[in-house]
From TrEMBL:
Belongs to the peptidase C40 family. One of its GO terms (molecular function) is cysteine-type peptidase activity. The gene is ywtD. Residues 46-176, 185-310 form the NlpC/P60 domain. PANTHER family: MUREIN DD-ENDOPEPTIDASE MEPH-RELATED. It comes from Lysinibacillus capsici. This is C40 family peptidase. Pfam families: NLPC_P60.
């Protein structure tokens, strides 16, 4: 169900400690619509969908519903959206959000009669507001797997089994073709893959010691690009922001650098992120390396600019 905040026993950080609490009301900034990567073949997408389904089924009877706690260890606790975030991340696909009202803005629209395995399916039972309040994943044969509620927990439901699914159906989104890397991977894909590989392996602090995987935020960015064959040659935010060519938010592509301030209206950067495609950014800050989505109000209010430092050809 729809939620604004989650707590976690494994320190899943909801806000950014460097800036205080993040506002979470939906206020999407303008970024390009997600597009299916033509180089991503159907076989790869289908194989990944099967992995997601297998992981989801393996958690049946192992997890309980919670709208306020995210616990990714046994005994698991998930909301409907954080359940999907977990099974995607366990299979190497980072949605970057645990909110269904953000998930519904990812990927590409798909009609109900064209659903495929791995598609996200959204419902809204509340009579007020416009946000969906439930999400599940399509697994084929007109069925979804989802964290239903406190009584059912994780279940598989036929979309024709109850009036709820017909009367409250909102939309469906196909996210796998837009989230997976191209084959062969582009330079931007490689940068994003490297950043995600180090996501839980590095610490972000005020000093850099590469041998111990401790970095300042800009030094981490420089490190990831070097690992990807791109020499930025800069470990300061202002210097990074002077690199490359300016790119509009509507034209962001994987591997672009996105800069934010801590004081609205200031041109002095205090945060840098790596654009990861489909509205996601990889953020190094004092809480570690995190993936977030650009739909959060904070980014619209504190956005400065974006720079393209690699060739996207």
């Amino acid at each position: 169900m729809n939620k604004r905040f989650l707590s976690t026993t494994l320190a899943l950080t909801i806000g950014f400690s460097s800036f205080g609490m993040v506002q979470t009301a939906i206020q999407p900034i303008q970024v390009e619509a997600a597009t299916t990567n033509a180089q991503n073949n159907a076989q790869a997408v289908a194989a990944k969908a099967d992995q997601l389904i297998q992981t989801g089924k393996s958690l049946m009877g192992q997890a309980t519903y919670s709208n306020s706690v995210y616990k990714p260890t046994y005994p698991y606790k998930f909301s409907c959206a954080s359940f999907l975030m977990y099974i995607f991340e366990k299979n190497g696909v980072d949605l970057g959000t645990y909110n269904e009202n953000y998930m519904i803005q990812q990927g590409t629209y798909v009609a109900r009669n064209q659903l495929q395995k791995g598609d996200l399916v959204f419902f809204k039972s509340k009579k007020t507001g416009t946000d969906p309040d439930h999400v599940g994943m399509y697994i084929g044969d007109n069925k979804i797997i989802h964290m239903a509620d406190t009584k059912q927990n994780i279940v598989i439901s036929d979309l024709n089994s109850k009036p709820y699914y017909k009367e409250n159906y909102v939309s469906a989104r196909r996210v796998l073709p837009t989230l997976l890397s191209a084959n062969p991977a582009t330079k931007g894909d490689k940068i994003v893959e490297n950043a995600l590989t180090y996501k839980n392996k590095v610490s972000i602090s005020s000093t850099t010691n590469e041998s111990s995987l401790r970095f300042t935020a800009p030094a981490f960015v420089d490190f990831i690009y070097r690992k990807s064959g791109v020499k930025l040659g800069s470990t300061s935010l202002s210097s990074l922001m002077s690199k490359g060519s300016t790119v509009a938010r509507a034209n962001l592509k994987k591997g672009d650098l996105v800069f934010f301030n801590s004081v609205k209206g200031s041109k002095k950067p205090s945060l840098v992120g790596i654009y990861a495609g489909d509205h996601r950014i990889i953020i190094p800050n004092s809480d570690g390396v995190m993936t977030r989505v650009l739909f959060v109000d904070y980014y619209a209010q504190h956005y400065i600019t974006a720079k393209r430092v690699i060739s996207t050809k």
